[in-house]
Specification:
It is a single chain. By secondary structure, the chain is an alpha+beta fold. Helices cover 40% and strands 24% of the residues. Strands 1, 2, 3, 4, 7 and 8 form a six-stranded antiparallel beta sheet that branches. It contains five helices and eight strands. The protein has one domain.
Length: 150
């Protein structure tokens, strides 16, 4: 199976397993970008595939409730902003694994479906995301505002 076919399989597992979970948690959007509006801000989640390997990251970030204006003056509305637009973000699994964590869907497994396993692992790491979004959203937003003023 080539890399393109493997990517299609992980994307399908994410659609079947992870996205329904995201919907239950209040997220809107479609692959690869999702948003959850709160009164204090927006929780962002983006799936990003490697260009060179059978791996992906799940990046999360916080955003002010109105969206952002980049340091070069581009306004990105609350309905269009993504985790990639934010300077301060976390790759899901990085805190648990103490490394820049990538989900590797190129591994072979005889006993389990690696695609379903990784889609489920994202859910299993959910507490890491919720803790990160809650721990200091205002500080994270302040860091972004500081970056945009320079």
């Amino acid at each position: 199976m080539d890399r393109k076919e493997k990517r299609q399989k992980i994307d399908q597992a994410i659609r079947d397993i992870t996205i329904p979970f995201l919907r239950e948690k209040g997220f809107k959007g479609s692959l690869p970008h999702f948003r959850r509006q709160n009164k204090d801000g927006i929780n962002l989640l983006t799936f990003q595939h490697s260009l060179y390997d059978t791996k992906l990251v799940v990046e999360i970030a916080n955003c002010p409730p109105e969206g952002i204006t980049t340091h070069w003056g581009k306004e990105i509305s609350k309905n269009k902003v993504t985790a990639h637009d934010m300077g301060h973000r976390l790759r899901l699994g990085s805190e648990k694994h103490d490394t820049d964590y990538w989900f590797d869907y190129g591994k072979k497994s005889i006993l389990t479906d690696v695609y379903k396993k990784l889609a489920t692992e994202i859910i299993e790491l959910w507490d890491e995301a919720e803790t990160w979004w809650k721990k200091d959203p205002f500080e994270q937003k302040q860091e972004i505002k500081t970056l945009h003023k320079n």
